[in-house]
Task: inverse folding
């Protein structure tokens, strides 16, 4: 076969695995561990290479042909459609078969570089966790044809006869039409079920509805007893019984005429529209009555969300104080510049430069906080408009991307909980597709995902039946509190107990996989047919894709309901190729999902961020599908919330100041920045499309209502497209209702060849980029073609010559791809939305260990430095003609995002200044008068007042605010300084930095915060240790010097000690982290401290012995007022120039 041909291999049926196999599905095994008698896709002696054995007759599903040996390997020329001759290959499951349009049960691998495409049948594990009675009975099977009975038109199990003889609808219809219509078991004639054709013997007045008899009486079945003795019925049904007879096992329930039952709709009419029962009535779309229809129409026409400004009584005083602080700051800096200290000019100059830098940094930070807003959504309007009860849902599809790379750092159980929470979300099942990106190609992750798909068949219906929160099982069963709160269904306790046992079994199976994965064979893992697992080399493997669940597939949940899509994706990797880390993996998922489901919206989640609020997807749709403002929104960002953080939040992991203050401010400008997870994108925005012009105008008018001029000058009139002020009746004026006709976005380039240069060579994927509807682009009648397209778009060389990572998708060039990706979207004129739900939409884990936290901040800081030195620097990128690009205030926010690591340089210097003052017995300020004291304390008062008002309108607690301030100093003197250094090395000398993934875990049951007290050495702690040590040494020298003097100047010393003490207070959490649980400093830390002390001592003695300035004192040394003023300056500058 020539090298230019593409080889198509289809693996054979595999049998059950041995106990030594890593997996339990019979697909994967270590080499030479399979038992005799198993079926393998291996060549027989004398056969051609690659020829497959035909499965035994007893495993062939009736109605399917055997696989023709001549079709086991097909040579295809490039450019031809993928196909194979012969019938479908049977699966190793006797009860189900793959439909012609199903993509399940096929592990697809391939590489365009090697021109290979392989499909291996992967039997889905159909085992049930626990016993069959854990969650009710198993699905009924027809006694005649051995197929599943299925459901009737009302969604209940199809049981046409009172004797409950299992029969499917096809056999039922056949018996009624050709065999007299009698039940094979009880010989009674079948009654006509809803949807069945009328037979001659059917009564003319029969209503043809399930559960009703010929007299029109409602049959009330016996209800389950609660507690063994009580019998309760639905509150809307009257149960008639003999009061004197008590309750016995033979309790008789009498049928009640339906006309005697109170109609709930009549009760609602009596109460009226303003009653509490009217809101539930809105959910019944088909309720009769003109009055209801009118209200329904009004609700549909309204917006799905609204902007809620911060209360003016809180915001206006805050703004006034900001203006006062700015004026006082200018006066203070003017005074500092005009009053140099000539006796210590170098100290004065250094301090003034640092203070000016801090002032500019504060201005950049304050610009985004001027007009903070919040938003609220109307889920009832969304459901009324797009999700009618009893009708097909019109909600848009959502592709959920979950990314993982290393199962050792990111445990499979954590990832499994995230996936289970996605699959169980309160959203139409056929509208969700969950894609797991395994960037490490790990067999452990693949096997764990198989286990997760099996457990999902139990977990998803349980969550939806009882509407539990959260829907990640580990978090749900681990919650402390009353889990019965709000539960009214009697079977909940029993089923919850059973489900918890099933989850514990699931955890044991995952733990077994993890334990087995520790003993990796020398030659790597092998598959059941003897071929090696493609991902044995994590940086050198072909693409791997498998659809594990599909809504119209062969594996519904235990109640025979559909399950969402679940797809495993591992993109191709090769040595000496730049894989672009997470950004490259996300772009591969965008393309793979585009040829499979192609949902118009994409939700990005880290593998440790689970869905904490089941309606989170609908919350995002309230913004995205809003008919007025939705078309101009590129993404909806949810705040990050975290579990497992210590009560004191020592290292400010909650980051409350950023998420509850800064992000609210950005939402009033052009929207929040993208923070890497918990974000719902518009697919067309990721493809580089621009928003509709009228959508931009509508959003611009909305932004004017909360901008700077709206506060001091009132709202401004909108301008039309020609730039003139809009008037009544102008064609160019913006009308919100006209935006419903602007759903089709205009692409940047419409030529098909240009689109291929932009999006790549896959024709089917390029076509999908032009689709904006709800229907997927893939043609599932040709599953092989769909899978081949998915392999092609995840190939290592697919992006070559295209605009991926440059102008579309996740943008490359920075380790913080999230910031630059959101920035590029905003520069095109899109806006984003910040969605703060009452219940946190998503929750994740954060590193509570000091070393892990510092490395996380280092990674963020280095990403900002990379953006600063790239072509995407907001100082010069994103300028467009007119008002179509980045807004001024938004540009300032992005500039602040890229330059904040450079603040670490003046911060480190400023933290050293008090120690230098104590060493040299000098001041950074000259002799000052009482007028100077006024400057210091007024400046400090304005800073304190601004901080207090900021905490008031944002509801941020003082503890959170103070912890954020402390960690700003800790991170600034360690991680941010290292980020600047590494960024310069990368830009100048092309030295790339390597990062390890942050450890993600569910926590230790014995000690939830054990990681908090573990000390791990990292060179990032050296600068803060030096600052602490130098300040402590300076305090000791200063006190010793004053004690040695005949007339000590304690006022001067007080100011210097206050400055040093303030620096040390900020670094207190850092010192606690060094001492660990037992408050003991590790020995190697003592070695570093000792070396620094010796070095400082030698340097200090040598310097003063040569210069002879040890006894010099400034002219203000005996002035106690100067000491107090210096303390005030230190307090102000050291605390509130920060974030």
Result:
């Amino acid at each position: 076969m020539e090298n230019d041909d593409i080889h198509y291999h289809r693996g054979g049926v595999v049998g059950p695995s041995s106990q030594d196999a890593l997996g339990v599905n019979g697909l994967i095994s270590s080499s030479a561990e399979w038992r005799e008698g198993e079926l393998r896709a291996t060549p027989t002696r004398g056969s051609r290479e690659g020829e497959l054995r035909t499965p035994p007759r007893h495993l062939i599903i009736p109605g399917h042909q055997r696989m023709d040996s001549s079709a086991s390997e097909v040579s295809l020329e490039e450019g031809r459609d993928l196909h194979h001759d012969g019938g479908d290959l049977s699966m190793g499951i006797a009860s189900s078969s793959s439909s012609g349009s199903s993509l399940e049960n096929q592990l697809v691998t391939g590489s365009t570089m090697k021109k290979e495409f392989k499909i291996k049948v992967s039997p889905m594990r159909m085992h049930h966790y626990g016993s069959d009675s854990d969650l009710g009975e198993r699905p009924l099977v027809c006694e005649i044809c051995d197929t599943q009975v299925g459901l009737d038109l009302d969604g209940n199990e199809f049981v046409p006869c009172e004797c409950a003889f299992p029969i499917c609808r096809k056999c039922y219809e056949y018996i009624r039409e050709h065999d007299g219509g009698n039940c094979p078991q009880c010989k009674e004639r079948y009654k006509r079920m809803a949807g069945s054709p009328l037979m001659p013997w059917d009564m003319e007045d029969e209503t043809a509805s399930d559960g009703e008899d010929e007299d029109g009486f409602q049959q009330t079945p016996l209800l389950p007893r609660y507690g063994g003795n009580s019998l309760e019925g639905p509150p809307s049904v009257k149960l008639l019984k003999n009061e004197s007879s008590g309750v016995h096992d033979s309790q008789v329930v009498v049928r009640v005429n339906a006309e005697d039952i109170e109609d709930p709709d009549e009760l609602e009419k009596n109460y009226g529209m303003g009653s509490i029962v009217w809101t539930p009535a809105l959910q019944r779309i088909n309720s009769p009555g003109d009055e209801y229809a009118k209200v329904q129409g009004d609700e549909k026409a309204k917006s799905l969300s609204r902007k809620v400004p911060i209360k003016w009584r809180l915001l206006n005083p805050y703004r006034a104080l900001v203006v006062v602080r700015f004026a006082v700051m200018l006066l203070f800096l003017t005074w500092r510049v005009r009053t140099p200290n000539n006796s210590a000019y170098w100290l004065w100059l250094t301090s003034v430069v640092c203070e000016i830098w801090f002032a500019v940094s504060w201005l950049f930070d304050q610009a985004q906080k001027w007009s903070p807003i919040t938003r609220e959504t109307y889920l009832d309007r969304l459901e009324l408009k797009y999700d009618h009860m009893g009708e097909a849902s019109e909600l848009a599809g959502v592709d959920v991307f979950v990314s993982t790379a290393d199962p050792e750092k990111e445990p499979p159980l954590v990832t499994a909980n995230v996936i289970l929470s996605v699959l169980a979300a309160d959203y139409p099942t056929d509208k969700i597709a969950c894609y797991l990106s395994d960037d490490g190609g790990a067999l452990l992750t693949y096997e764990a995902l198989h286990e997760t798909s099996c457990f999902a068949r139990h977990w998803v219906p349980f969550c939806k039946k009882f509407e539990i929160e959260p829907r990640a099982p580990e978090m749900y069963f681990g919650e402390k509190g009353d889990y019965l709160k709000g539960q009214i269904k009697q079977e909940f306790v029993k089923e919850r107990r059973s489900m918890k046992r099933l989850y514990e079994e699931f955890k044991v199976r995952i733990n077994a996989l993890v334990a087995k994965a520790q003993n990796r064979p020398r030659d790597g893992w092998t598959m059941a047919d003897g071929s090696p697992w493609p991902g044995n080399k994590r940086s050198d493997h072909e693409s791997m894709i498998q659809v594990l669940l599909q809504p119209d597939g062969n594996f519904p949940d235990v109640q025979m309901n559909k399950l969402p899509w679940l797809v495993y994706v591992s993109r191709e990797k090769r040595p000496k190729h730049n894989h672009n880390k997470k950004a490259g993996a996300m772009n591969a998922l965008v393309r793979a999902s585009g040829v499979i489901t192609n949902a118009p919206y994409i939700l990005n989640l880290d593998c440790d961020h689970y869905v904490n609020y089941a309606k989170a997807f609908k919350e995002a749709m309230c913004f995205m599908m809003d008919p007025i403002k939705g078309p101009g929104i590129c993404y909806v960002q949810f705040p990050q919330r975290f579990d497992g953080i210590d009560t004191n939040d020592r290292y400010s992991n909650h980051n409350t100041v950023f998420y509850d203050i800064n992000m609210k401010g950005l939402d009033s400008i052009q929207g929040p920045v993208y923070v890497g997870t918990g974000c719902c994108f518009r697919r067309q925005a990721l493809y580089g499309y621009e928003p509709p012009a009228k959508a931009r105008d509508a959003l611009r008018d909305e932004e004017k209502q909360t901008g700077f001029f709206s506060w001091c000058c009132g709202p401004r009139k909108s301008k039309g497209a020609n730039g003139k002020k809009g008037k009544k009746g102008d064609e160019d004026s913006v009308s919100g209702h006209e935006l419903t006709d602007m759903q089709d976005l205009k692409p940047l380039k419409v030529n098909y060849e240009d689109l291929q240069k932009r999006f790549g060579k896959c024709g089917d994927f390029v076509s999908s980029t032009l689709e904006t509807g709800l229907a997927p682009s893939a043609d599932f009648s040709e599953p092989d073609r769909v899978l081949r397209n998915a392999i092609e778009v995840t190939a290592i060389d697919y992006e070559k010559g295209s605009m991926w990572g440059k102008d579309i998708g996740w943008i490359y060039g920075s380790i913080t791809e999230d910031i630059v990706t959101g920035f590029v979207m905003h520069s095109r004129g899109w806006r984003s939305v910040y969605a703060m739900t009452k219940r946190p939409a998503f929750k994740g884990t954060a590193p509570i260990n000091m070393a892990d936290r510092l490395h996380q901040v280092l990674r963020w800081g280095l990403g900002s430095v990379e953006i600063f030195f790239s072509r995407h620097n907001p100082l010069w990128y994103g300028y467009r003609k007119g008002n179509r690009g980045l807004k001024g205030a938004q540009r300032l926010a992005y500039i602040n995002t890229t330059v904040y690591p450079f603040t670490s340089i003046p911060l480190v210097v400023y933290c050293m200044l008090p120690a230098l003052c104590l060493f040299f017995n000098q001041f950074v300020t000259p002799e000052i008068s009482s007028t100077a004291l006024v400057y210091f304390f007024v400046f400090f008062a304005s800073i304190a007042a601004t901080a207090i008002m900021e905490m008031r309108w944002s509801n941020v607690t003082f503890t959170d605010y103070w912890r954020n301030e402390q960690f700003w100093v800790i991170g600034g003197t360690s991680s941010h300084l290292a980020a600047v250094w590494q960024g310069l090395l990368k830009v100048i000398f092309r030295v790339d930095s390597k990062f390890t993934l942050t450890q993600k875990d569910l926590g230790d049951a014995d000690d939830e915060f054990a990681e908090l007290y573990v000390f791990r050495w990292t060179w990032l702690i050296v600068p803060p240790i030096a600052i602490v040590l130098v300040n402590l040494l300076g305090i000791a020298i200063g006190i010793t010097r004053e004690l040695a003097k005949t007339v000590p100047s304690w006022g001067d010393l007080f100011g210097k000690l206050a400055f040093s003490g303030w620096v040390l207070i900020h670094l207190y959490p850092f010192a606690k982290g060094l001492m660990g649980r037992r408050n003991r400093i590790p020995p190697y830390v003592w070695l570093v401290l000792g070396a620094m002390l010796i070095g400082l001592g030698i340097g200090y003695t040598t310097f003063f012995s040569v210069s002879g300035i040890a006894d010099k004192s400034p002219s203000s040394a005996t002035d106690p007022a100067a000491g107090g003023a210096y303390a005030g300056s230190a307090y102000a500058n050291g605390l509130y120039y920060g974030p």
Summary: The CA atoms of residues 642 and 654 lie 7 Å apart. DSSP finds 32 helices and 21 strands in the chain. The first helix runs from residue 169 to 178.
